[in-house]
Write a structure and sequence with these properties.
Number of strands of chain A: 21
Shape of chain A: globular
Number of helices of chain B: 5
Largest interface: A-B, 16 and 15 residues
Shape of chain B: globular
CATH class of the largest domain in chain A: Alpha Beta
Number of strands of chain B: 6
Radius of gyration of chain B: 20 Å
CATH topology of the largest domain in chain B: GMP Synthetase, Chain A, domain 3
CATH topology of the largest domain in chain A: FAD/NAD(P)-binding domain
Distance between the termini of chain B: 60 Å
Strand order of the largest sheet of chain A: 8-17-9-10-13
CATH superfamily of the largest domain in chain B: K homology (KH) domain
Oligomer: heterodimer
Strand content of chain A: 15-25%
Strand content of chain B: 25-35%
């Protein structure tokens, strides 16, 4: 967005509470790699030029990439500036920060979709003897006491953390709710390559059947690893991870209860993956790409043991740690403009927020399926900066007129 | 194709269901329902239950008539078998809830159903209810539902229908997840 505004000579500032790529520096685990392959990070005019286009950036490389981009475009970033509040003002918005106030005509909310780890309310009933961490706080297995770990959540974060922790000789029990299974490599190509080539990532928010639902879909169960292996429930159970149903509640006495819906959760996920691969195969056939890649195939169904455990006494001492990988929500506590709905979600139309001159970036399926990816920022910024600039111009015309 | 789609009729008024969903989205209070039953002991393990009123859409509601249910136990439990066992009512509840959901989802997805037949079986170790072994639970060890569905759809679409019906079913949720139960004496 900063680049698009600079290109049009729009005076702006980028406020950053820490350093550029702050979240990547401070809120991610050490071994995390970007879920998308190197070639796919295509910030405008700043694509990948290394010799490993199919690899996945390490955390340090992601930080370096984003920081280099800020330098390359001479983004007017003002670091170590925490926004306290944004409120309506006569001329637009008043932004209060710990480094002084700003008056501006327009605001772009790019503070991220994953600020607060969402933990179910019954986490308060976990016995005190058990260490609790969120995926946001987890760094590496050395943080954890020896003994068994319950990882709650089986999307991208939960499955990766479960794998790493289990490999550290801390047996993992993984609680699985709704998730979306996906092969890392399909017919010899990265799944992201297929989704990009087949146009799935470019699908627009105003073209899908139910955008509210599409925005709530959990992240694909993808991991970026050097061996490009698929990390799904089958891979985890093959390693010895024990899989149980969604954590449905914890009683006053610390009895964790798991849903009996595990089989259906896995069936739904297998079916969704099947539909995604069907679309990819149809595109490959239509576009004449079929002969250039391996034949279509399907992954074996997710294996679920006949009677997964439905309960566990947390106070028994077997489980030493619980890691909550139960998703995130954005933090808009500083946003004092009435643009939130009754559930605290920002109301917007493809990133154009309901308050004039306010825009949103980086949210799930904001304008396109790829909106939350690094690769989605360019197109969204082009669209939204165009809207922002025409807003500023019309405002100027009104004042002059 | 459009004509074929519009001719799908599973007897489910999807438009009304969608309208209800929209109305409830706008007025969440209307979504608060209370479902009720009354049960009276007759003799032995025989009881007689009735279902008539419920609360929803902001007011008291009534079924078109009073529905009655006799529950008892079979003669091998030294009972008189004057009705299905309560656990069989649970099976009926689960199968009928899933089946209703299948019809609704099929209508929404433009899938014409010709026949939907579920058989449902719950495994129980009676040592639990008889108090023979404290480690055996009273309820089902597991429940298996088998559907035979004849419909204008591919097998994957039928499987997706059955999976989605589980995701949306109230009784499926009730039997797979814990529920706080309060029983008091007036």
């Amino acid at each position: 967005m900063s680049r698009c505004l600079s290109d049009r000579s729009i005076d702006h500032a980028v406020l950053e509470r820490g350093e550029v790529a702050h979240t990547w520096r401070t809120e991610r685990w050490d071994s995390l790699r970007l879920l998308t392959p190197n070639w796919q990070s295509r910030l405008p005019g700043f694509g990948y030029i290394g010799d490993d286009p199919d690899g996945y950036r390490t955390l340090a490389e992601v930080i370096e990439y984003i920081a280099s981009y800020a330098d390359a475009i001479s983004a007017p970033v003002i670091t170590h500036t925490t926004v306290w509040s944004v409120r309506n003002a006569d001329s637009g918005y008043l932004v209060r920060t710990d480094q002084g106030d700003w008056q501006c005509r327009a605001v772009v909310v790019a503070s991220g979709a994953c600020n607060i780890a969402d933990v179910p309310p019954f986490a308060s009933k976990v016995p005190r003897s058990i260490m609790q961490l969120t995926a946001q706080e987890y760094r590496n297995p050395d943080q954890l006491p020896c003994g068994s770990i319950l990882v709650v959540g089986a999307s991208s974060s939960g499955t990766q953390i479960a794998k790493e922790v289990h490999r550290s000789d801390r047996p993992v029990i993984l609680s699985v709710g709704e998730h979306i299974r996906a092969p890392r490599v399909y017919r010899g190509k990265d799944l992201e390559w297929w989704m990009d080539a087949a146009g799935l990532l470019d699908e627009r928010y105003d073209e899908v059947d139910n955008i509210a639902r599409a925005r709530r879909v959990p992240s694909l169960q993808l991991a970026g690893t050097p061996d490009r292996s698929t990390l799904d429930i089958n891979a985890l159970t093959a390693m010895g991870v024990k899989v149980v149903g969604r954590l449905a509640g914890i009683s006053e006495h610390g009895r964790a209860q798991f849903s009996g819906s595990l089989r259906n959760m896995c069936a739904l996920s297998d079916l969704k993956m099947g539909r995604l691969l069907d679309r990819i195969d149809e595109w490959a056939q239509r576009s004449g790409f079929d002969s250039a890649v391996g034949p279509p195939h399907r992954l074996p169904p997710t294996r679920v043991e006949p009677a997964p455990p439905l309960a566990m006494e947390l106070a028994s001492g077997e489980i030493k740690t619980i890691i909550w990988a139960t998703g995130y929500r954005p933090d808009y506590s500083w946003l004092e403009v009435p643009v939130l709905d009754s559930r605290g979600r920002i109301q917007h139309d493809g990133g154009v927020v309901s308050a004039p001159g306010m825009y949103l970036m980086g949210a799930q399926f904001l304008r396109r399926r790829k909106s939350a990816l690094i690769d989605g920022a360019g197109d969204d910024a082009r669209d939204l900066s165009a809207h922002l600039i025409s807003y500023l111009e019309s405002r100027l015309a009104r004042i002059r007129g | 194709m459009a004509e074929a789609r519009s001719s799908v009729n599973n007897g489910v008024n999807v438009a009304a269901l969608i309208a209800a969903r929209e109305a409830i989205t706008k007025a969440p209070a209307a979504a608060q329902f209370k479902w009720r039953a009354a049960c009276e002991w007759k003799d032995g393990t025989h009881s007689h239950s009735t279902v008539e009123s419920f609360y929803g859409l902001g007011q008291e509601q009534h079924h078109k008539k009073i529905f009655t249910f006799d529950a008892d136990h079979p003669q091998i439990f030294a009972s008189e078998d004057k009705g299905a066992t309560p656990v069989e009512y649970i099976l009926v509840g689960l199968a009928s809830c899933l089946t209703g959901a299948i019809a609704a989802v099929a209508q929404y997805r433009n899938i014409q159903l010709r026949s939907v037949i579920a058989t449902i079986e719950g495994d129980m170790d009676a040592r639990g209810i008889l108090g023979v072994d404290e480690d055996v639970r009273n309820g089902f060890g597991g429940i298996k539902v088998t559907y035979k569905i004849d419909a204008d759809a591919k097998r994957e679409d039928i499987e997706a229908l059955v999976a989605q019906s589980q995701k949306r079913s109230a009784v499926y949720d009730i039997v797979t997840n814990p529920t706080n139960v309060t029983v008091i004496v007036d």
